[in-house]
Amino acid sequence: MQLLARRVDLIQPSPSVMAMSRAKELIAAGQDICNMAAGEPDFATPRAIIDAAYQALLAGETKYTAVDGTRALKEAICEKFRRENALTYRPDQISVGAGAKQVIFNAFACSVDEGDEVIIPAPYWVSYPDIVQFNGGKPVFVVAPASQEFRMTAEQLQSVITPRSKWLVLNSPNNPSGATFSSAELQQIGEVVARHPNLYVLTDEIYEHLIYDDLSYASFAAVNPSLSERTLTINGVSKSFSMTGWRLGYGAGPQPLIKAMEKLQSQTSGNPASVSQAAALAALKGSMEFFGEWRNEYQRRRDYIVGQLDGREGLSCAKPAGAFYVYPSCAAHIGKTTPGGKRIETDTDFVLYLLNEYKVATVQGAAYGLSPSFRISFATSMNVIEEACRRVLAACAALQ
Question: What percent of the chain has pLDDT over 70?
């Protein structure tokens, strides 16, 4: 009898996490790496949040809490949804976990049966398909290329729905492309979902505040209120408050699903860290005045990268409406040869070439389901971004 369960073979290590870890290893070894693989803000967690966490520790908030979040935090999450998203939830419709990833995993573990189909627009966050497959589901991909600004259409959605379709996953703004659905597009998608009463929607809105060019943000459940009982809205404090390491995410949706997720979490991780919950409570109840400066800086970085890469040395780089990534196409370089004689067959080869020869860490498009492309994070300093762009262009120019 073998030690490892067969289900472990259904998943792979997260490519984005692996790329970020590899970059950090090389930097620690003394190499001059431009790390453009990190999917986390480079700003410090706001001081008021840190102070609140410290005071909570001093006050003795170091014990077990309710499995899926304290009452105070759940009430603050309900108020956040009401204030920012025009959504009404009760505390018993809220699940708090150790990061949005855990909440998503719990949701699929509690609702996906063997053979159920989960519709995932591509490009997609790397973990969606693996979580679905680990829980016995079948990912069904809908490719949304750059020609349609990486946004799936309602017609595309309709074309892939079958009697086995259980979930639709929406991620707006999107990781890795930054694509962001408009209210009209979400309404059109909602009209399709409404025609299929057994289809549920998981909407990952973790990048909701990272919207540029004075665009407005729309939450799927707010645009489609009649589908609220079929929608699980995922969010967290990692991106908006630079709290990735605090590991605190949450979801809001149908009470029977939330109850099942609580039961599962009671037998897995138990409650999220009490200090992280205290910090998240302070974040959600505090001011976001700081974020305007962050957003302006992100937009400045975005504009610089797109200006440097789009249309130069064979690259095509669309301007994202949200998040902190660009997703350039490297199609023109597939089939070319490096100065060392290695042929670039895939975007994975291209990314390895950038890392090994020019010391720029990015993530291959294959990890996100749409090739040949690569993801560049601009959640880093302008100095690093400028040098990374120079190296990427030099690397492309050197290919023959």
Answer: 100
